[in-house]
Amino acid sequence: MKFNCNQKMNLISRIRFPRTSETSSLYLICTEGAFLNLSQEQTEVYFNKNSVLSLNTYFNSFYESFYAKYTELKSLYYLLILEGDFQISLYREHYQKESRELIYTSRFEKCLLSEPIKLFLSNTWRSKDSGRAYLEINCLSNQGLFTKGFLATEQPKIQEVYLGIITCTFRKESYIRKTVSTILNDQFLQNHHFKILIVDNGNTLTKDEFLNSKIKLIPNRNVGGSGGFTKGLIEALQENVYTHFLFMDDDIELDSEAIYRLFSLYEYANKDFAVAGSMLDLYKKHILYEAGAIYNKSIDDHGNIKQDKFTGYPLKHNLDLRNPTTLTSLLLEDNIDYGGFWFFAFSKQIVEKIGLPLPLFIKIDDMEFGLRINEHFDNAIVAFPSIAVWHEPFYAKRPIWDSYYYIRNHLITNSIHSSLEYVKTVKAFTQSILYSLCIFDYNSAQMVIKAFEDYMQGPNFIISNYPEILHSNIYELSRSYKNQTILANSVSSSDFYQVTKVGTIQKMLTLLTLNGHLLPYFLITDESVVIRFGVKEKERDSICKGLAKKRIIYVIDENPNSYQYEFDQKAGLNIFFTWFNSVIRSCLRWSSVNTEWKKAFNNLTSMQFWQKYLEPQK
Q1: Which strands make up the sheet holding 193-200, listed edge to edge?
Q2: I need a surface site. Which of 49, 100, 502, 505 has the fewest CB within 10 A?
Q3: Model confidence over 234-276: pLDDT tens digits?
């Protein structure tokens, strides 16, 4: 059955069904006797007598306090399409109360699919007692059926939203095709104004694949994610029709409801804000990996925020969304510094105020963009619960070249938005290099030095280098030392592994000898040792275990691979003295380079710069 809205009614969100059984717990909970049908033709819930469908879930809860704070919505109601007899109850949970509150309950008999039932929300959802609301549907007849549900209003929209959906891809053709198909196959989205702008940095897609008028394929040089997103943003700005823009990574798994809810938020928004879509773990789909993040800060074991340079720290990290208490904790709103570009939406007014992204190729571009938004709009980035995508978690990624961009771009961003103290910066990077040397990871140590030295060349380095050539060089440099072997991760649980700590004397010997690099080679034993890097500090082995050993097997929690590093005395000493020389050379130029980056900032984020930067390579 097709559902037709009357002209007065505007849908705010839809009760969503899962597309796979793997994600079912994030959408609905069926007691014994209630069955979810996941057929291709129609998704429905079948009931036997006294069975219950609960929407006390991540995607189908209504997070009242967020809508009360950020929208002008007042009168809301549920519209349910059912067949049979039902007892329907509306509950609310609040993080300050231990028990749930029954807001409304009523019997509905002889429901028909052709006659949707309407349940109005009490006006208390906008009060200080607002929280997280959800429905429970109890079947009273011998059999029952639930096919669709909506949260709706008859308030007129405050503004019409025109959304430019910008995704940048580099040879992720299957992901892009799936994302585009998901959006275009959502019939309810077709009533909204949007266009998908696909920026193809790899030039592997063809226009014949995307003939729909709602899609625009844009071939582009490989200027990285920041260049691809900016290319799409410039093209969208030049069309001069869009009120809002949405950046989406190419390698996400999308439920199109995230975009649908984004529309209604902006249609009824009472202020200008950016939306940071949450990141769900692609491999553990019930885990919330991040809901916004903070910059240059981290959180200690007691939940306190502390200053921590060169760090982006995820908020609401590693939460199990199957737990109702976790869902209610999402009502506690954080002060967000930035949101990842896997799903990040903002208005045209924001772009006009802060400019375009920085040309950072990859990494930190989303952090820097978010910092600028907050500087101009006063904590205007919001992580709305239930607006999320699945994305590959960072613990599963460890390309060595990646760290070059992470370090270099952190330096650039900090020089623009905060102060960089020479001694503290050198100390932090020296510690990082020493750590890499102590586990014989020479390529990673080399990436730190290269990132530091390129930053010290100032903004002309960005302007004068073709990013695709630079990236090719960085990639090759990250493979200079052939002493790394990738192994399957054999240490996966702290229950079966004893973490090793060492004494003060061994720590001193490790430091004084660079973990054996300053020892005579005949003292290096032909042995292997496992060093485990746990998520929590107390679950980490001491790197001093590798003293005078020839091989280290480095194991990272949750990473599917382990890394075996072979000792190379000459390589380690060469890297150490190279870093020492870099530190000496940079000492006198540090302040002037910082100033150069600050002065170049306005130019690097301007339309004029980007249009020239994105020109085809000659």
Answers
A1: 215-219, 193-200, 162-169, 244-249, 344-347, 274-276, 381-382
A2: 505
A3: 999 999 999 999 999 999 999 999 999 999 999 999 999 999 9
The domain boundary, picked from 370, 396, 422, lies at 396
Based on the domain organization, do 446 and 580 belong to the same domain?
A: yes
**Closest by alpha carbon to 357, among 223, 243, 201, 218?**
223
Is 420 inside any structural domain?
A: yes
Per-residue pLDDT tens over the stretch 11-58 = 999 999 998 889 999 999 999 999 999 876 678 999 999 999 999 999
Q: Do 517 and 543 sit in the same domain of this protein?
A: yes
pLDDT of residue 2: 41
Query: In this structure, are residues 199 and 167 in contact, taking their beta carbons and an 8 Å threshold?
Result: yes
Domains: count for the chain: 3
Amino acid (1-letter code) at residue 248: M
Q: Are residues 432 and 360 in the same domain?
A: no
Task: List pLDDT tens digits, range 346-360.
Answer: 999 999 999 999 999
Q: Rounded mean pLDDT of 73-93?
A: 97
Q: Are residues 206 and 350 in the same domain?
A: yes
| DSSP code per residue over 264-275 | HHHHTBSS--EE
Determine the 3-state secondary structure of 237 from DSSP.
helix
Q: Are residues 132 and 30 in the same domain?
A: yes
Residues 381 and 426 in one domain: no
Q: Which residue has the higher pLDDT, 122 or 89?
A: 89
User: Of 442, 547, 545, 534, which Cα lies nearest the Cα of 484?
Assistant: 442
Strand-strand pairing, 215-219 and 244-249: unpaired
- Which pLDDT belongs to residue 262? 98
Distance CA 438, CA 543 (A): 7
In sequence order, which residues have a C-beta less than 8 Å from that of residue 559 and are 6 or more positions away? Answer: 395, 396, 398, 489
Cα-Cα-Cα-Cα dihedral sign, residues 589, 593, 595, 596: positive
CA torsion, ordered 433, 437, 443, 446, to nearest 10 deg: 40
Q: What is the mean pLDDT of the chain?
A: 93
* Rounded CA separation 439/445 (Å): 10
Please indicate, yes or no, whether residues 258 and 325 belong to a single structural domain of this protein.
yes
Residue entry with tokens 């060469």: 574
Which residue type, as a one-letter code, is found at position 605?
A: T
Name the nearest CA neighbour of 265 among 341, 165, 157, 338: 157
Q: Exposure pattern of 438-470 as b/e (b: 16+ CB <10 Å)?
A: bbbbbbbbbbbbbbbbbbbebbeebeeeebbeb
Instruction: Give 4's pLDDT tier (boundaries 50, 70, 90).
Output: low
Alpha-carbon gap, residue 558 to 539, rounded angstroms: 13
Question: Model's pTM, two decimal places?
Answer: 0.94
Residue type at position 576 = F
Q: What is the pLDDT of residues 517-560, one digit of tens each?
A: 999 999 999 999 999 887 676 778 899 999 999 999 999 887 88
Expressed as residue numbers, the domain containing 323 is: 162-396
